[in-house]
Amino acid sequence: MAKIGIIGGGIIGSAAATWLIDEGHEVTVFERDPGGRPASAGNAGFIAVSQIYPVARRGILSQVPKWLLDPLGPLAVRWRDLPATAPWLTAFAAAATREGEARTMDALAPLGRRCLADHIELGNKARLTGHLRNTGALSVRANRAGLDADMALYGEVAARVDVDYERIGAVAARELVPELEGAFAGAVHLKDFWIVTDPLQVLRHYQGFVRARGTLVEAPVVGVEAGAEGVAIRTGDGASARFDHVLVAAGVWSRRFVRQLGLKVLLAAERGYNTTYADPELKLAMPLIFAGHGFVASPFVDSLRVGGAVEIASPEAPPNFARARAMRTIMRRFVPALPTEGGVEWMGRRPSTPDSLPVVGRHPDDRRILFAFGHGHMGLSYAASTARLVAGMVADVEEVNILKPFDIARFNRGARGARTRR
Ligand SMILES: Cc1cc2nc3c(=O)[nH]c(=O)nc-3n(C[C@H](O)[C@H](O)[C@H](O)COP(=O)(O)OP(=O)(O)OC[C@H]3O[C@@H](n4cnc5c(N)ncnc54)[C@H](O)[C@@H]3O)c2cc1C
Question: Which positions ≥6 away from 222 have C-beta within 8 Å?
Answer without folding.
Answer: 234, 235, 236
